[in-house]
Predict the 3D structure of the following.
Amino acid sequence: MSKIIFFIFSIIAVLGLTSCTTTLNSSKTKDFGSSAITATFADLVVSPHKITYTYKPTDDVRRGGEVNVINTAIRKALEVNGGGDVLVELQTTVKKKGRKDVSEVTVSGYPATYKNFRCADDETLKNALMMRSVQDEPVIRKKILGIF
């Protein structure tokens, strides 16, 4: 009888140890640092009237973090004020409950839209490439008390 009980407990122990397995899957990506330059230009038409909008975030928006709340406030401000693409001279004021919870965001700026999209000519692309290849300024080390 004791051999049967020992056998049953052994089977239960073996099944208990083999039934739960943990699998860890991970992946990594390699950033190749592409340096593509867009060849499309546009004019930015800025409104002369400054707008101010106060946004009280919902719990769903608040869960995305402070940056998400600010971006949503900007999008809502542009929707309410006739629609635009960006706010120029953006100013934000964030009010928080406690340390993390954002209770209110006030954004202000000049709404602007992009117009007159066009392809760049060869000269404009050459100038853009020249501006990207600015040499670093030399590092000037100062001596402290003549020692270092």
Q: What stands out?
A: The two ends are 86 Å apart (CA to CA). Helices lie at 2-18, 59-62, 66-80, 122-132. Residues 2-18 form the longest helix (17 residues).
